[in-house]
Amino acid sequence: MADPKGFMTTPRQDWARRPVEERVRDWDEVYVPGALLPIISKQADRCMDCGIPFCHDACPLGNLIPEWNDLVSREDWRAAADRLHATNNFPEFTGRLCPAPCEAGCVLAINQPAVTIKNVECAIADRAWEEGFAPPRPPERLSGKTVAVIGSGPTGLAAAQQLTRAGHTVAVYERADRPGGLMRYGIPEFKMEKHHLERRLEQMLAEGTKFRTSTSVGREIGADELRTRYDAVVLATGATAWRELTVPGRELAGIHQAMEYLPLSNRVCAGDLEASPLSAAGKHVVIVGGGDTGADCLGTAVREGAASVTQLDIYALPEAERDEDAEPWPTYPIRIYRLSAAHEEARDLRTAPVADADARLFAASTLRFDGDAEGHVRSLHLVEVDARRRPVDGTGRTLPADLVLLALGFSGPDREDGLVDQLGLAMEPRGTVARDAGFATNVPGVFAAGDAARGQSLIVWAIAEGRAVAAAVDRHLTGSSRLPSPIGPYDRPMVV
């Protein structure tokens, strides 16, 4: 503990964002370049090195947070990078994309702003790359065993890297033209620039992991062929079966799923397209869904030059502070008002003058869509709802809508490619892949991890699942494993 009084003398200071008017004119990350390192050592000083660090329990990876906070406060970046990578394969991803349940569990957060754990993590990861502290780690010898990992999101990549480093020959199958999953084509560039992803993929290639892109398992390659070719198979396809909105007018043109819209803007940034065919430019946009995916659509539509953007959230406007009765420390408070970078932009630019806060209308439920003579959506009718989602009389209103984006979450793996049925996988009633306490499915040699089995979750849980299933597969192949297994398949976040 470098400064025993740091938490009393140093106020919390977050990584500064670039001015709104500047950042909405480009697709670069929203933070001021270089503004983190000058403040981060003092911020790490605020860590109290608690006797019982609840941040460990709040983080499914079991990140050694007090240890690397202390090392950063002393500016021992190499040791900090070693401790960080001991539990997390991709800290530059979580440092940008994770909502930081660790900070909600920080002991300091009982009565003060928490330590900026996420910022410290990001600073260590970026410094590790700059200083060469994250070299490839190819195995010393090969086991002779082969593993197929289906899906290249954070779960698939973490599993593949762990298994490769253990000496197995691993091939990652990805149906898109580039690996990365939602980090590639779901997460907008302004949240995480893709060079962070490319750098890790290059590291994995140097370690020996193989990538088979533009290959849909179940179509281009059958399940039986895959099982014959490999000693083990890891299903890490994610939960990409999106939820629908069944209201009158849903069939109108101009109503799209968020994951039909977001990949196109990412392809524009990648240089694949000159302009998105679903661009929001000059359109009145309504986003149905109040979660992170909806916020990603919001920031994207603002950058594309939408005439207006409104986001509908079926829940009531949350309080600024956590409800200690409903969501006490150290649980992660779900219902608390948060202002993401996209919402800050929408608020300052007044993209939705009718909104309750920033661009959001809370306690709002969609009733129907109306269109023009050509069958294109032109308006959305909504009503305010109470805590039980029952319509409140006299609260109906109409919003102009030329483009409607549905961001209602996901229910489980996409089954259109036939993989689940070809394998004969047992499924849970909620649509996810069933597995036992060792991540194994009902099919011998086939394991399931990540959102495909857990259900829609956070990136930090996805990486933890990837590390844990790697240990299970290693044990299956060799009889034992020294790989870490941070979570079990039935573990869940801390709740009351």
UniProtKB/TrEMBL annotation:
Provenance organism: Streptomyces violaceus (Streptomyces venezuelae)
Presence of keyword Oxidoreductase: yes
UniProt-listed PROSITE patterns: 4FE4S_FER_2
Keyword Amino-acid biosynthesis among UniProt keywords: yes
Pfam families the record matches: Fer4_20 (PF14691), Pyr_redox_2 (PF07992)
Pathway(s) served: Amino-acid biosynthesis
Lineage of the species this protein comes from: Bacteria, Bacillati, Actinomycetota, Actinomycetes, Kitasatosporales
Family matches, as InterPro entries: 4Fe4S_Fe-S-bd, DPD_II, FAD/NAD-bd_sf, FAD/NAD-binding_dom, Glut_synth_ssu1, Glutamate_Synthase, Helical_ferredxn
Domain named 4Fe-4S ferredoxin-type: residues: 38-69
Protein name listed in UniProt: Glutamate synthase subunit beta
Keywords carried by this UniProt record: Amino-acid biosynthesis, Glutamate biosynthesis, Oxidoreductase
Transmembrane segments annotated in the record for this chain: none
